[in-house]
Structure formats: C-alpha cells, structure tokens
Amino acid sequence: MKRKIIQIHAEKCNGCALCADACHENAIKMINGKATLISDEYCDGLGDCLPACPTNAIEMIEREAKAYDEEAVKKLQAELAPQPSMLTQWPIQLSLINPNANFLEGANLVIAADCVAFAYGNFHQDFIKGNKIAVGCPKLDDVNYYIEKLTDIFSNKNINSVEVVRMEVPCCGGIQRAVELALKQSNATIEYKTTTISIEGDIL
C-alpha cells in the first residue's frame, strides 16, 4: 500500500539519537551510529521524530510500504521494556551468606560464578527466577572456605536442588569442584547439574 512514512538520510545523521528517543513506537534504532527505520510496520507516519532531528535528516514521504501494525509495535515494546529483578534474597555473595539463613531451607540453589551475570544476558529470567542464588569467584576467593560453607549448607538446610552456572574459562572449574566436593562431604542426596556459559554469552 502507498502511505506516508519517514525517510532517513544517513549522510545528514549525526548520531545524536534524539529521533529514536522521540519515536513512541521504537521504530528507529541506532545502527553503526546512524538512525535507521527498522521496519515499515513500526512507523505510524505521524512524524514525532521530525522536529527532534537537529540536522533535518528525516523527512516525511509517500511510498509503497507495509501497513502500520499496532500489535507488532506492542510486541516490540514488550520485548524492549526493562525486565524486573527476579532476586528474592540478600546477600548473594557466597562468602557473605549465613549458612543458617532461612531462605536456604528447601531452596533450589543456583551457585554462579561472578562473571556469568555479565556474560549471559537473560540471567535473571533463566537462572534466578524461582531460585535462590549464591555467587562467587574461585580465582579471587578462598575455595576451601567455599567447600566448608557449602558442606554446612548442604548438610543442614534440606536443599532441594543445586545448579552450578560457570563460565567456560578454566578458573571457573574451581567453583564447580568446590560444590561437587561439598556435596560429597555432606552425604546429602541433592539433585545437581552444571551449566557452562561461553565467553560469547551462549549456553554450551
């Protein structure tokens, strides 16, 4: 269909992103430092972005374009909306957690290397949601202290399950070994698994 829609002149764009901020539909995204219309379906043709542009890099034209899709815009906005924290306890550092803390009783416990939350973008949704969390760095912390504390927790807190989430780098093996040794020393029957994250942020 032929309709009004914006056109962005990349050669005039200075990368200020004011147009992207002004677009209520999130139809404009900064790509390689330039404003870009990511889909015809997201642009309603009202032109809220035009007065925001200081270099007149955007104009309204009439051309063949897909119809504006309000449902697609709502879906996009839901995907871009800030996600709430799934954290339900404090502290989270393994070295600071009291082995007698009430939140540990009957918990599904995720024990994660510090770097995982930065490397894996969906950490809250995939690993913290519905679980209790303990984080640490076996390269910087005392692994023997980890073993002692975890053995205490596994022996006395009726832990339901344990998942180690570590990076693929060799130093992260320390947190996995600490958990496995603590499980052995506690003689507890606890469901256990390990998930490894690549340095690119993928689950291996």
Distance between the termini: 45 Å
* Succession of helices and strands: EHEEEHEHHEHEHE
Strand tally is 8
Major sheet characteristics? 4 strands, parallel
Give average pLDDT, whole number.
96
Instruction: Give the count of helical stretches.
Output: 6
**Ranges with pLDDT <50 over ≥5 residues?**
none
The Cα radius of gyration reads: 25 Å
Give the key terms:
6 helices, 204 residues, two-stranded antiparallel ribbon
Give an account of the 3D structure:
The strands form three sheets. Strands 6-5-7-8 form a four-stranded parallel sheet. Strands 1-4 form a two-stranded antiparallel sheet. It has a two-stranded antiparallel ribbon with strand order 2-3. A hairpin with a 2-residue loop joins strand 2 (28-31) and strand 3 (34-37). The mean pLDDT is 96. The protein has helices at residues 18-22, 70-80, 116-119, 123-128, 143-156, 173-186; strands at 2-8, 28-31, 34-37, 58-64, 108-113, 132-136, 161-167, 191-197. It is built from six helices and eight strands, in the order βαβββαβααβαβαβ. Helix 5 (143-156) packs parallel to helix 6 (173-186). The protein has 204 residues and is α/β, with parallel strands linked by helices.
